[in-house]
Design brief:
This protein is α+β, with helices and mostly antiparallel strands. The chain has two domains: 89 residues, Orthogonal Bundle (434 Repressor (Amino-terminal Domain)); 160 residues, Beta-Lactamase. The protein contains 13 helices and five strands. Strands 2-1-5-4-3 form a five-stranded antiparallel beta sheet. Helix 11 packs across helix 12. The longest helix is centred in the first third of the chain and has 17 residues. The N and C termini lie far apart (44 Å).
């Protein structure tokens, strides 16, 4: 296990320990308790492991952790399914899915699916949010991202000024959800990507340090496309099973106004990019 990965494991355990109150596990809070979360010795006791061993694990020392012990710690820290799997990945236990090298681009059949999904915007992203394939409506909707050198949606959302954000509302909520999904990535370039984006964006570094974990899913988002206006879209992530690590992202208008606006944008792909005074 690399030193960086041990540090990530240690920080994740400390973060989740702080979120579990004594009452959650049946421990009286006591009058002298200074923190709301569990103490290390309490996690060790409830997990059936030695206090010294757990302390070393949380300090990021190079020690081995079995599946059984990690399961016990996960139960004590009340980790959900996604967080439990994330703990396995950080600890690099044998039963955890091995990190697979993700393909740079999907096959021709996936591109045909994207084209046939039109007029709905759709793309294929890797688990670092890099767009590797897309259809024409998506190119209209996300022209700023596709014009960037790396075509990475997550990086663009953090490095551009907040007033230029593609999200029309709830920007921080959406960014936190994306960062939480990034934590499920097994991409071999994850550590380098996180380090680089953390240097570029203090906001990303702060959200990454929260150690939130969430799988890709479906949710309604309000967008402000480059062509102007506002769109409410249901965004759904679909795994591209034939290609490891890739997912197809499809945008469906959530109301008639958004559908009409999307139709206009798709039929006017050369509409000038909306401009404004940066704040």
């Amino acid at each position: 296990m690399t030193e960086r990965r041990r540090g990530e494991l240690a920080a994740f355990l400390r973060n989740r320990r702080a979120r579990v109150s004594p009452a959650d596990v049946g421990i009286p809070p006591g009058p002298r308790r200074r923190t709301a979360g569990l103490r290390r010795e309490e996690v060790a006791l409830l997990s059936g492991v030695g206090v010294t061993w757990y302390t070393w694990l949380e300090q990021g020392r190079p020690i081995n952790a079995s599946v059984q012990i990690l399961d016990a710690v996960a139960r004590t820290l009340r980790l959900d399914v996604t967080e439990h799997a994330h703990l396995y990945r950080l600890a690099e236990v044998p039963s955890a899915p091995a990190s697979a090298v993700e393909a740079a681009a999907p096959g021709a059949e996936v591109q045909e699916i994207l084209d046939r999904v039109a007029p709905l915007p759709a793309c294929v992203q890797d688990s670092l949010f890099t767009v590797v394939a897309w259809n024409a409506p998506y190119a209209v909707l996300w022209r700023r991202t596709l014009a960037s050198a790396d075509r990475n949606v997550l990086r663009q959302c953090f490095v551009i000024p907040p007033c230029c954000s593609p999200f029309a509302s709830d920007r921080e909520v959406e960014l936190r959800a994306m960062v939480a999904t990034l934590r499920t990535s097994t991409h071999p370039g994850l550590d380098e990507f996180v380090a680089r984006l953390g240097d570029e964006s203090a906001e990303f570094a702060r959200m990454w340090a929260a150690h939130d974990v969430a799988p890709p899913g479906s949710r309604v988002k309000a967008f402000r496309p480059a062509g102007g206006g506002e769109l409410r879209m249901t965004v759904t992530d679909l795994q591209v099973a034939a290609t490891s690590g890739l997912r197809m992202v499809v945008y469906v208008p959530a109301d008639d106004t958004s559908r009409a606006r999307l139709d206009w944008l798709v039929t006017h792909p050369d509409a000038p990019v909306s401009d404004h005074v940066h704040r």
